[in-house]
Amino acid sequence: MNWTMTLRVALRALARNKMRSFLTTLGVVIGVAAVITSVAIGDGAKARVEATFASIGSNMLIIMNGSSSGGGAMGGAGSMPSLTWDDLKAIQSELSAVKDAAPVLRSSAQVMSEESNWATSVQGTSPEFLSVRAWPLDQGSNFSQSDVDGGQKVAILGLTVVEKLFGRNANPVGQVLRVKNIPFTVVGVLARKGQSPFGQDLDDVVLVPYTTFQQKIQGGLKNYIPGSLMASALGDDGNVRAQQQIRGLLRDRHRLAPGADDDFTIRNPSEIASAQQAGTRIMTNLLFGIAIVSMVVGGIGIMNIMLVSVTERTREIGTRMAVGARARDIQLQFLTEAVTLSLGGGLVGAGLGVGIAKLLATSMGFSLLVRPEAMLLAVGCSALVGVVFGIWPAYKASRLDPITALRFE
Asked: Strand pairing partners for 328?
């Protein structure tokens, strides 16, 4: 028999017991659907983590003041001032692995326009902030170093603040808003950033020069930086080198003895992203393992049903051998039936997996990535399951003695 005839005979044999054939493939269907869903969840979560951390600056470092201790009471990072403005200048000018650095002083304040008011985060920083955060402007321009040096009352707004104070799609550049009743001229509007990895609205912010922040909002100039520093590393993989250089520089400048604890804290958001991706990878591997077990169980079910089929069709096998069918023809026919069963289950499972992935994407509110290569791999594995678990029943059928088979009741 040629391939076409063999396939036609196999389909006819499977069609005689449609329900049994369908139930036999359920393990493969579930396994393939689980593979596609788990890969889609893993890829979608990975893409989301990468996009989220890219929004806050993938090569960014956060340098915080140290932690205080006294009288048995321990404070967290940032509770003891240790970073100075000279530290900032040294980081900006002396380190080869650092591209830019900027201070970030924070305060909450009620800001007002002529039509509305809104409570938001006001941050004092320098012009390098936008470069460090990889944050482009949507309208207007950045404030300048002369604005910082002169303590000018200029501001850059996030889009949430623009929408709350001036209305959606408004252009507030050149208009005045009041921060703690102090007038600031809007010079720019930030492009939309969305949410941080911790759910914070990054667009709900007002940026002003840090000197103006200290003089007008915080009250009084301080020698130490009453906030944190942000630095961006040169190159996408330069965080570790930049972190080492900053740590060495600050330890030298703060004259810390060898073995003494740092009086500052450096946080690398890319490490947090790596940890989140590692957790996602573990869950994906777990689901993938469950899917493989399901496919193996499905393969065992196919082998079991094929062995039953060989027994039920013993006289048919004997008749075919009597009219000239060779052992390899019988073997090929049963192997084709097993592969057809598992491959059919794989195709149904692929469709089911895509449906489940889209359902999860809708209900969980984030995008999933269904890769064509993952679908091809899953369907290919289902065909391989049919070959592996169909070989023994096919071999057993091909080894039947024609005379014994014809006498089988």
From this structure: none
> Is residue 111 a contact partner of residue 165, using CB atoms and an 8 Å limit?
yes
Helix residue ranges per DSSP H, 323-371:
327-364
167-202 pLDDT per residue, tens: 888 899 999 999 988 999 999 999 988 877 666 788
Rounded CA separation 325/312 (Å): 18
Whole-model pTM: value is 0.63
CA atoms within a 13 Å half-sphere pointing along the CA-CB vector of 118: 22
Closest CA to 208 of 230, 177, 239, 237: 177
For the chain, helix (H) and strand (E) counts, in that order, are 14, 12
Which pairs from 291-296 meet CB under 8 Å and 24+ separation?
291/31, 291/32, 291/34, 291/35, 291/38, 292/31, 292/35, 293/31, 294/27, 294/30, 294/31, 294/34, 295/27, 295/28, 295/31, 295/32, 295/35, 295/381, 295/382, 295/385, 296/31, 296/385
**What distance in Å separates the CA atoms of residue 354 and residue 363, rounded to the nearest whole number?**
14
Going by C-alpha positions, the residue among 199, 280, 229, 251 that lies closest to residue 100 is 229
Contact yes or no for 218/58 (Cβ under 8 A):
no
